Amino acid sequence: MGQIIMHIDVNSAFLSWTAAYEKQMGIKRD
Hints:
By secondary structure, the chain is mainly alpha-helical. Helices cover 80% and strands 0% of the residues. The chain starts with a helix and ends in a 5-residue tail after the last helix.
């Protein structure tokens, strides 16, 4: 169970980092 929660947490952090990076690079996401 702990592993699943950690995976979700890491995935969420990765998605928000990716969104911030794309925003910085001027890439528009739908």
